[in-house]
Amino acid sequence: GQQVMQIPQYQHVQEGEDFTTYCNSSTTLSNIQWYKQRPGGHPVFLIQLVKSGEVKKQKRLTFQFGEAKKNSSLHITATQTTDVGTYFCAGPNYGGATNKLIFGTGTLLAVQP
Amino acid sequence: EAGVAQSPRYKIIEKRQSVAFWCNPISGHATLYWYQQILGQGPKLLIQFQNNGVVDDSQLPKDRFSAERLKGVDSTLKIQPAKLEDSAVYLCASSPTGGPYNEQFFGPGTRLTVL
Fold first, then answer.
1. Which of A29, A90, A97 shows the shortest CA–CA distance to B48?
2. Relative to the CA of B19, which of A99, B6, B89, B114 has its CA 20 to 30 Å away?
3. Among the ranges given (A53-57, B57-61, B89-93), the one the predictor scored with the smallest mean pLDDT
4. Confidence label for A92 from pLDDT (cuts 50, 70 and 90)
5. What percent of chain B has pLDDT over 90?
6. How far is B107 from chain A (nearest CA, A)?
7. Residues 6+ apart with CB under 8 A from B85
8. Residues A109, A19: contact at Cβ < 8 Å?
């Protein structure tokens, strides 16, 4: 079955440092979505990428979708304590009729002030 | 706009007991999802409803788990009997439609502990 892996599993940074998490799917995706889950909270949608090679920015966050639509990355510039949480990528299989999202394994980000 | 509502927020039961969770999606959202999130893992889809019909329940352990969405609005998920490995957060989510380009809106979840 489809698997979505993320690396690293955990990263601890000093406030102000940059952070990147990588997402790799075993199958081609129709789109990739990113969610953030604060400690003790629920996943909250951040963004969706659809096109091959697409890059989107949200303030300090930069999202990329790979050319083959099997990988993606999230880069945070100059982390802040508010960035703490687990970042999940998720995607439905290419050609699927439903939005059955397969979530990645997640990357837990800790930011030390 | 009100978000996805879930209850209870926490539940502690002993193994072999039964438990039920309730979810009320965002008004007008046709698609409702139940996920299981084990500590340290990503959410895993258990069942997806489109209105009151089941779209996908391939990962639902049907010998002990059941779910319904009778009127196409709110939904209940039941576990009977519970096992230790069912300890997890059960998340409900909804989206306007079931298409592959819809973001999903998650509720706060129910944290289940099975002793």
1. A97
2. A99
3. B57-61
4. confident
5. 87
6. 7
7. B114
8. yes
Residue numbers in A near B9 (CB within 8 A)? none
Residue A2 corresponds to which tokens in the numbers above? 């489809």
pLDDT tens figures, B60-78: 999 999 999 988 899 999 9
Which amino acid does the sequence have at B61? P
Task: Kindly report the average pLDDT of chain B as a whole number.
Answer: 95
Which residue in the set B45, B95, B106 is minimally distant from A42, CB to CB? B106
Q: Is A82 in a helix, a strand, or coil?
A: helix
Q: Which burial class, exposed, middle or buried, applies to B22 when counting CB atoms under 10 A from its CB (0-12, 13-18, 19+)?
A: middle
Would you state the structure tokens that stand for residue A70, as one six-digit string?
A: 């099997």
Taking the C-alpha atoms of residue A113 and residue A13, their distance in angstroms, rounded to an integer, is: 9
Nearest to B77 by CA among B65, B87, B86, B89: B65
